[in-house]
Design brief:
The complex is a heterodimer.
Chain A: H1 2-25, H2 29-48, E1 60-67, H3 75-91, E2 93-100, H4 105-114, E3 121-124, H5 131-136, H6 146-150, H7 152-157, H8 160-164, E4 167-168, E5 171-172, E6 175-176, E7 186-191, H9 192-197, H10 207-220, H11 235-244, E8 248-249, E9 261-262, E10 271-272, H12 278-292, H13 307-312, E11 318-322, H14 323-336, E12 342-346, E13 363-366, H15 373-385, H16 387-394, E14 403-405, E15 408-410, H17 417-420, H18 445-455, H19 472-490, H20 497-510, H21 513-533
Parallel strand pairs in A: 1-2, 1-3
Antiparallel strand pairs in A: 3-13, 4-5, 6-13, 7-11, 7-12, 8-9, 9-10, 14-15
Helix pairs in contact in A: 12-20, 15-16, 19-20
Chain B: H1 2-44, H2 48-54, H3 66-71, H4 75-108, H5 115-127, H6 132-142, H7 150-156, H8 160-170, H9 175-183, H10 188-199, H11 201-217, H12 220-225, H13 235-250, H14 265-301
Helix pairs in contact in B: 1-14, 4-7, 4-8, 4-11, 5-8, 8-11, 9-10, 11-14, 13-14
Classes of the chains: A alpha+beta, B mainly alpha.
Chain lengths: 535, 302
């Protein structure tokens, strides 16, 4: 009783605090006024004479918040010295990187923004760095007026439809990393040599063929667990839905795995749950079958081993992860298991249901309390657009960190990771045109990317932020059910699959799943209106 | 007569049985406590590949010191971190112990008028706290303690729990002692240092150990307030960073950006644990007897 009271009081207190805090951090009108004024003068000078120069007479230090551990081997300082010499000469400024280390980075990153410390450039991401929540609290400066003047190249490069993706209340909040290709669509990594041995000659594109492969491993490779999965990983359900529907997962967390999707790319504003139709039943049946056949170990639900290391050691025949991982593993496996010919079955291959990564998975914003947003943008424009600066920032010094041969990037002879390693973790505006391809990349990478490019669709939910408030209780209950009942169904350990699915659905319904769906639909409708109005 | 002998023999037997059982039980219990640590030690010296294939082993199947090499990649930094932690622990424990003891003593003196109200305020903070954001704002914006060791030292000095513990311990010393000393002309500070402190050694040892452990294991405040620009940061934060970044690099689900590197993750975690707990294990037996005494005293007085 006492405890409950305490809790209630605590929540109330916390709520008051939160309210007062947001009140503190909303940008004051004076702030906005001053930037507006600054821009108008700058714009005026720009308009006054076509060649009128922006005033850079005062030397400024621009900070840039990056995520990662501060490099310790001394290379970083050497590269920065060179980079800053260029920046001084071109825009009379110096770049200073502030690191947010991986230890409890969410807390630290958000505190940095909440505390109102003056930061100039800051790495943002709408899907993993709470950018919209921070924008809502006024942590960033609107960039609409500054960009054309101070970062003209980037301003022209990013098309209007991509700028639309970066807007909060019709103001640009961040510069997206929209011209950089990276694929994180999931799939199965499997061994091409073994597949061939089992009579699978063409690349695997569906789950039935995958089953043949697993069976082959089971029959012909004693001591190898076909797929040594961890019961706490839910990649298989997301993958199956990706393979056998046109649905696109919504950025709404329901715990272990997502229950709510957009119906399809054409009907992206229609909430849909594949858990409620045959998709899930078929999946559950297949997983029961796979489990019974011993494709994973009996105690899969409690197993915590490292599947990837087992694959590398030849003790498991697949790993379930995304394209970038596959590309890295392919190179590694060629060394560790020569002739293994690691292959990739992207879940999207079955029905070509493939969306690109959100263009705001990486980006850069300017802090609300930044003292020199203009120069910060000029520095950003250089990092992104100037090949020399770009390469210093991303690769380090030519001859020390890399050498270029036939247009490809290699490590120099005698390169030592401990001694020579360099990184800045610049993930806020990499760009394909300034990249030098890595000479050690797998030769098939180009073809794989080309096959994706043929079918890819733009990620539609970059700006969709689900407001949980109206359904907090339902969402908590549902998350719990997913965590409790999910793993057994996912790995075929729940007895009769049809009955297990029925029980699962009944529990979800009792927890208020219908209400959740209605709420999501309502918010999707509202989202549709915003998207269409800002086009 | 025979009966007596029989009974004696019986008592003999049962006492032997009880002893045997006692030794066995305690021995087993000690083993249970020791085994995990030996497992940690063994794993820290095992090659990562062997851990994947065979799991954890008491005796390394494939001996490797690679994990320690990574942890001690930069010996100057780790020695510096040890120094920082040691310094903070020593200064913090000495100052903290003194303040806590003074507060505890004052709070139980019957001639201190507002003692109950003040005790309540101290107790109140255990129930209600501002939360991380206000704490962060006060520390950085008002007190300007960012990148200062004071940010780690100050918050650990006093804790309501320890003050209450001290207070209840000092209650066992009769007030008459204070009064008689006063009559002999001793000042309050003299009474405290010459009479009260010597009589409270078990409590001081216990509280001192709590404070010292707190400082030794402290990483959260250091993580919040000491930026990577500082040359040396507390040991636990340093080690925590080594492990989290390796974890992140290996399983970067958040971002595809990080290049996976070869890190001996499991063995490294264990090596970290060994490095972090080593000194505490050496320190523990020395204060253990006070520790037990202190705990029991606190328990009776509630």
């Amino acid at each position: 009783m006492m405890k409950k009271k305490k809790k209630v009081l605590g929540v109330a207190l916390a709520a008051t605090l939160a309210v007062s805090l947001t009140a503190c951090t909303t940008p004051s009108s004076t702030d906005k006024g001053s930037t507006d004024k600054a821009t108008t003068t700058a714009a005026a000078t720009a308009a006054g004479g076509a060649t009128a120069k922006i005033d850079t007479s005062e030397f400024q230090t621009i900070s840039y918040v990056m995520l990662g551990d501060k490099p310790k081997n001394g290379q970083f300082e050497k590269v920065m010295e060179k980079l800053n010499a260029i920046l001084k000469q071109k825009v009379n400024a110096k770049l200073e990187i502030k690191w947010v280390e991986w230890a409890d980075w969410q807390t630290k990153y958000n505190l940095l923004l909440a505390s109102g410390e003056p930061v100039d450039l800051i790495t943002v991401a709408t899907d993993w760095l709470d950018t919209w929540q921070n924008a809502q609290k006024g942590a960033f400066q609107p960039l609409d007026k500054l960009l054309p003047v101070y970062a003209p190249l980037t301003w022209k490069e990013v098309p209007p439809e991509n700028w639309a993706e970066t807007k909060y209340k019709n103001q640009i909040m961040l510069i997206p990393e929209d011209h950089y290709t990276q694929w994180v669509n999931h799939g199965f990594l499997y061994r091409g040599d073994w597949a061939k041995e089992f009579g699978i000659t063409s690349p695997i594109k569906d789950w039935k063929t995958m089953e043949t492969y697993f069976q082959g491993v089971k029959d012909k490779k004693p001591g190898v667990v076909p797929w040594d999965a961890n019961g706490t990983a839910a990649g298989n359900i997301a993958g199956y839905i990706n393979s056998y529907t046109d649905a696109i997962e919504l950025p709404i967390s329901t715990g272990l795995f997502g229950l709510v999707y957009g119906k399809s790319y054409d009907e992206k504003y229609k909430a849909y749950s594949p858990i409620l139709d045959d998709t899930f039943v078929n999946f559950a049946k297949m997983m029961k079958d796979w489990g019974d056949k011993g494709f994973w170990r009996e105690d899969v639900l409690n197993y915590k081993g490292d599947n990837r290391s087992e694959l590398e050691a030849g003790k498991s025949s697949v790993d379930q992860h995304h394209t970038q991982t596959f590309l890295g593993e392919r190179i590694k496996m060629d060394k560790l298991q020569p002739g293994s010919d690691l292959q990739f079955f992207p879940f999207s291959a079955t029905r070509n249901n493939l969306v690109s990564m959100s263009i705001t998975h990486g980006g850069t914003s300017i802090g609300a309390k930044s003292k020199h947003p203009e120069r910060a943008l000029m520095v950003y424009d250089l990092i992104r657009q100037d090949p020399e600066v770009y390469r210093l920032m991303n690769y380090g010094l030519e001859g020390v960190q890399y050498v270029v041969k036939d247009g490809k990037r290699y490590r120099p002879d005698g390169y030592d990771v401990q001694r020579d390693d360099f990184y800045t973790d610049f993930w806020g505006g990499r760009i394909d045109k300034n990249e030098i391809p890595d000479g050690n990349d797998w030769v098939g990478k180009g073809d794989l990317y080309a096959s994706y490019d043929k079918v890819k669709k733009a990620y539609p939910y970059g700006r969709f932020v689900f407001d949980k408030a109206p359904v907090t209780n339902e969402l908590t209950a549902i998350t719990q059910i997913v965590g409790q009942m999910g793993p057994a169904i996912l790995y075929g350990k729940a007895g009769d699959p049809v009955k297990a699915v029925d029980d699962f659905r009944a529990k979800l319904k009792a927890a208020g799943f219908d209400k959740l769906m209605t709420e999501i639909q309502k918010q999707l409708d509202a989202f549709k209106t915003t998207v269409e109005s800002s086009k | 007569m025979e009966q007596v002998i029989a009974r004696q023999r019986g008592t003999d037997f049962s006492s032997v049985a009880i002893r045997a059982f006692g030794y066995l039980f305690i021995g087993l219990f000690a083993l249970c406590c020791l085994l995990p640590f030996l497992l940690v030690l063994g794993t820290s010296l095992t090659a990562e590949k062997s851990i994947t294939l065979h799991g954890y082993n008491l005796w390394p199947k494939e001996f490797s010191t690679f994990a320690y090499k990574i942890v001690f990649e930069n010996p100057a930094v780790i020695i510096g971190s040890y120094g920082v932690t040691l310094g903070i622990t020593i200064v913090g424990t000495t100052v903290g112990l003194f303040i806590v003891a003074m507060t505890g003593y004052s709070l139980q003196r019957p001639d201190f008028p507002y003692r109950n109200r003040i005790s309540f305020f101290i107790y109140f903070t255990t129930l209600f706290q501002g939360g991380v954001v206000p704490f962060y704002l006060i520390m950085t914006q008002w007190l300007h303690l960012k990148d200062s060791y004071m940010a780690v030292l100050l918050p650990g000095l006093m804790s309501p729990f320890l003050i209450i513990m001290m207070k209840s311990f000092v209650t066992s010393i009769p007030h008459a002692i204070t009064e008689s000393a006063k009559m002999d002309g001793a000042g309050d500070f003299k009474i405290f240092t010459k009479l009260i402190l010597p009589m409270t050694t078990p409590a001081l040892a216990t509280i001192g150990l709590f404070i010292a452990l707190g400082y030794w294991n402290e990483w959260y405040n250091a993580m919040l307030f000491l930026s990577p620009d500082m040359k040396y940061r507390p040991l636990q934060l340093f080690l925590y960073n080594v492990v989290t970044s390796a974890d992140f690099i290996k399983n970067s689900s958040v971002s595809s950006n990080v290049q996976p590197r070869d890190m001996p993750l499991e063995s490294m975690k264990m090596a970290t644990a060994v490095v972090a707990t080593g000194p505490v294990i050496l320190f523990y037996p020395m204060v253990q007897k006070y520790f037990i005494k202190g705990i029991t005293v606190g328990a009776v007085k509630g």
